[in-house]
Amino acid sequence: MNSQPDNDHQQQSDNGCNHQIPNQNHKSEHGDRPGMQALPMPVPDPPIQYTKLFISNEWHESCSGRKIPVYNPATGELLCEVEEADAEDVEKAVRSARAAFQMGSPWRSMDASDRGHLLNRLADLVERDRLLLATLEALDSGKVFLMAYFVDLMATIKTLRYYGGWADKIHGKTIPVGDGQRYCHYFTYTRHEPIGVCGQIIPWNFPLMMFAWKIAPALCCGNTVVIKPAEQTPLSALHMAALIKEAGFPPGVVNVVPGYGQTAGCAISHHMDIDKVAFTGSTAVGKLIQKAAGDSNLKRVTLELGGKNPNIVFADCDLEYAVEQAHSGLFFNQGQCCLAGSRVFVEEPIYEEFVRRSVERARSKVLGNPLLPGVDQGPQIDQKQFNKIMELIESGKREGATLECGGSPWGQQGLFIQPTVFSNVTDDMRIAKEEIFGPVQQIMCFRSVHEVIQRANATHYGLAAGVFTNDIDKALTVSSALQAGMVWVNCYNAMSAQCPFGGFKMSGNGRELGEYALQEYTEVKAVTIKISQKNS
Amino acid sequence: MLRTVFSRALPGLSRLSVCHYSAAAIPAPNIQPEVHYNKLFINNQWQDAVSGKTFPTINPATGEVICQVAEADEADVDKAVKAAHNAFRLGSPWRRMDASHRGLLLNRLADAIERDSTYLAELETLDNGKPYAVAYTVDLPNVVKCLRYYAGWADKWEGKTIPIDGDYFCYTRHEPIGVCGQIIPWNFPLLMQAWKLGPALATGNTVVMKVAEQTPLTALYVASLIKEVGFPEGVVNILPGMGPSAGAAIAKHMDVDKVAFTGSTEVGHLIQQASGSSNLKKVTLELGGKSPNIILSDANMEDAVEQSHFALFFNQGQCCCAGSRTYVQADIYDEFVERSVERAKRRVVGNPFDLKTEQGPQVDQEQFNKILGYISSGKREGAKLMCGGGVAADRGYFIQPTVFGDVQDNMTIAREEIFGPVMQILKFKSLEEVVTRANDTKYGLAAAVFTKDIDKANYVSNGLRAGTVWINCYDVFGAQAPFGGYKASGNGRELGEYGLDNYTEVKTVTIKVPQKNS
Questions:
Q1: pLDDT score for A178
Q2: Residues A274, A259: Cα–Cα separation, whole Å
Q3: How far A531 CA lies from chain B's nearest CA (Å)?
Q4: Are residues B385 and B472 in the same domain?
């Protein structure tokens, strides 16, 4: 998320953009010394301390005795085995979360400011373990270590701190009610209460960051949580569980149950005693979650789903900058972003030059072991994703797009795919319609503002969009016309804890981050008291 | 004040023994804490006064000089304003800093104060005379909480986008006002500093703060922590000095964009005038009070007596929100007075470093004399002195806990702010009567009502003209809840989200667009 490097106090990063991590100055969270710092290095042979289910602040084996094998996608090697939660374990976790949510429990009777303080303490612990967590994240998900360190970990810490600050600022209101009757006088106020037990199901592309996005607003509002990390990437979430306990959250407030979607995830979304479910993942599974809520107890649902995000580049923009932004907007995190700018619409006069430079930029990418310095693209997460991406690349070729570079697997082992650029892509091709979730860039040509708005919006997704232009009228016209939860003007992937995130249409339901996310984790109670006489 | 902290800091104590501290929970104080800083803090540097002048700061428990402190006057204020102005220029490190990082610095400051709580509590007691146990369990934790609270606001103080008519796009930016002059009193030196710095810094202003000449020491130590945690130069400047010189220079300075003052109503008038005759700087004022505390006959007697005692005597009676007009319903009046006298007689007055002490000395000779003068006027005007009324020690500024019964609304002690350990108990018959009498004052800071009846509670709390109303409690403060006065008790609100308004300029930006769409 805040992929924007922090603007250091003395030196401005003039590109105002993201992901070009190693050559930016990063102020440490503790100070603001400008200048170069030695780049962080991964922890060699990091210990994997936590492999069990975390319920009631204790480590549990799964009821079934089954385990999930966890692999390093860069090598295919088995890292460890983790306890596999299914319905029975979810049941235990929900009971624990429900107990923690009882009236009069330590968690319910805690001062809101103390909830905030616990979140701040958790942020401090994440900061303390930042190298280890970034290493685990890189090993487990295949993402580039420096990205994990600078983007994922920074975002995690900042999100926890941000919501730490909200805890005692979630205000109800007093409301001047009246029914017009002379003898009825009332005093009305609202309380913003936590919803209760929240099921949270998170994906594998940003395991730690998604964990923070989910638990931080939930906890700051006073809910309790049963969270299921993805089966591909449970390790950082389990380390977080240990930190949650260390920070001093009462037992049962957060329960972490690694497992598969069809079993543990399904149990959460169908559970009659879960009051709310939040899911980040594919649109296909998002539909299942919504259905499960309808089939069970009408639990509240928030969804953050897929995208096929338009990134619109006008001829009047700063070309070099736009090429770089469009490149990182797609290739960041091996293309495994719901936000990926996977439909790059380029205005006709600069189309060929844009394609040429984008290909050049894609060819310069360094693939390899994500723990090594200098590498800027790691492997895809697993064989299934790898196969899907390769199949879509084939469809692109078959349907007549021009393969400008890449298009094949890379290396002797691991799940690497060459950075791939397609030009002459038309809107009806599968690669222009389906979410690829891999390092495959589609570049299309457009002629008019009106045309590009129509084409950009012609999708059932509506997550994010970008527009590059120096013309203020174009910028404002396009940004207000795009059907997307986030629109970036002359930047891409510029996210921060303060700014809401979520999708129009089938990209989701509700918003995460910012003040808006608090609504997703609160029930409003209006209390009305009869009084003897009203006065203004 | 800040009742909530008592119960949090000292769990297990009954509400009636809030002033009896458990020695185990509080570290033993060093009764001679070393003074590390006694100069002006400008641009993150320690400086002597331009004039070279110093003044003595006194230990009110003994009347002895603790040390000399550099005395700021107009020339120093000028230097500090220049530093603050420079720190506020466009493109400065402070202006370019992420809002979240401002918040992080405030959190770090809170952490550093928490780390040094024992020392700061000792220093506060030495300089101000308040019981160390109170400084440690009330003032310090609330300082930390206030800073943490505003740390959280730094990146949540959001402007809006606004659907104005026409083909326009309109949004607001919440910008800092600029250089803020802040003048704080001696009764809660650290806490008032935090109340002022928290919102000003969270919103991105720079500060020139004048601390009271009676109690400059803890503020200067906090200045060192401000530097330690990494606030850029010039963001906070702290000047010990006198009101008529340094305070006046701030209030009339043409380059100070806003002034916030906590202190007497008399000086509040001067501040407002100075703004009017200089640059119309924004003014917020937290001033005096003569706060009514209304006890209905259905209240829990024991609790109401204890709360009313606390409401008045807390901090040696040196609270702007002191419940200094205790209105008691006629049918319980005599018993209430009797029990209040009993409670006042039990009040432990003495060495503020002693953990058993509930009441230390008044802050200085001037206040001491003024309070004794009010006690004389009470006797002269016919109130019934039920206990106390005299000096409590042969050195230092100690005054006996004093209770007056049969007080009438027109007596001086029922109209003027005494700011000392002198309780006035008045009698009333009906709700309508007591609301009218309670509101018959130029002040409007705080008020309380004690009753079990929900209708009466709502009636009285709605009818009182006061910025804060407590029901079945008193002096309950939280950083989250706004505090400030109606009428001559002030202007604006501190704490809570409301406190941010006083440190913000709203800028409306309107952009022409080719075509508007919803």
A1: 76
A2: 17
A3: 6
A4: yes
Q: Mean pLDDT, chain B, as a whole number?
A: 95
- A529 to chain B, any CB pair closer than 8 A? The answer is yes
B163 interfacial to chain A (CB closer than 8 Å): no
Characterize the bridge pairing of strands A420-423 and A402-405: antiparallel
CB B500 within 8 A of CB A169: no
Mode of pairing for the β-strands spanning A78-83 and A67-71: antiparallel
Between CA B233 and CA B248 the distance in angstroms is: 24
Which residue in the block uniquely carries the two structure tokens 């606030």?
B231
**B156 and chain A: CB distance < 8 Å anywhere?**
yes
Q: How far is B108 from chain A (nearest CA, A)?
A: 9
Q: Which residues of chain A does B8 touch, with a Cβ-Cβ cutoff of 8 Å?
A: 111
pLDDT tens, residue by residue, B161-213? 999 999 999 999 999 999 999 999 999 999 999 999 999 999 999 999 999 99
B433 is catalytic: no
Looking at the fold, whether B339 and B432 belong to one and the same domain comes out as yes
**Residue A535, pLDDT score:** 85
Residue A355: half-sphere exposure toward Cβ, Cα within 13 Å: 22
Q: Which of B100, B458, B514 sits opposite A477 (nearest CB)?
A: B514
Q: Which residues of B touch A116 (CB under 8 A)?
A: 148, 152
Q: What ipTM goes with this model?
A: 0.85
- On average, the pLDDT of chain A sits at 93
Identify the architecture of domain A310-496 in CATH.
3-Layer(aba) Sandwich (3.40)
Which residue in A9, A111, A532 is closest to B96 by CB distance? A9
Test A532 with B459 for CB contact under 8 angstroms: yes
Look up the CATH architecture of domain A53-305+513-522. 3-Layer(aba) Sandwich (3.40)
Least confident of A175-189, A322-336, A491-505: A175-189
Claim to verify: residue B240 and residue B112 sit in the same structural domain: yes
Shortest Cα distance from B463 to chain A (angstroms)? 8
